[in-house]
Amino acid sequence: MTNIEEIQQNIVAEFSDLDDWMDKYALLIDLGKELKPLDEELRIKQNLIDGCQSRVWVHANYEDGKIFFQGDSDAILTKGLISLIIRAYNGQSPDDILNNQPNFINEIGLAEHLSPTRSNGLNSMIKQIKLYAMAFKIKYKQ
User: Fold this and answer.
1) Active site residues
2) Domains and CATH numbers, the chain
3) What is the pLDDT of residues 9-56, one digit of tens each?
4) pTM to 2 decimal places
5) Are 70 and 59 in contact (CB under 8 A)?
6) Of the candidates 29, 27, 32, which has an alpha carbon nearest to the alpha carbon of residue 12?
7) Which of 58, 79, 86, 117 has CB atoms 3.0–4.6 Å from 73's, for a disulfide?
């Protein structure tokens, strides 16, 4: 399994190939379209992320010391954002998730090209991923 840092470097490389922000937004939208839709029974209040302008759901499962995430959104650009976050942290241990910040967000310039409300939503998504990691770490005493 690839570590979080390598995944982040791959994301940065993908976005670095694009010069124009319209192309980068198009890539984000494509990534959102590639994200498998969340099963209807997982689109529940407990999986809904507070602080997002659009509706975003994230569900996590813990298996063999790793956390596996699923996510979805009712807004296509936001769905692209959650797909990037999931890609960076999916299949990693709680400690690795807690100890690795999503540096790729600043490296690809995403933070400065999102509206303040989308930026807040992105921060809420990251916070939720980290909260899942902390909860699983405590529950399974890793």
Assistant:
1) 52
2) 4-139 (3.90.1010.10)
3) 999 999 999 989 999 999 999 999 999 999 999 999 999 998 877 899
4) 0.93
5) yes
6) 27
7) 79
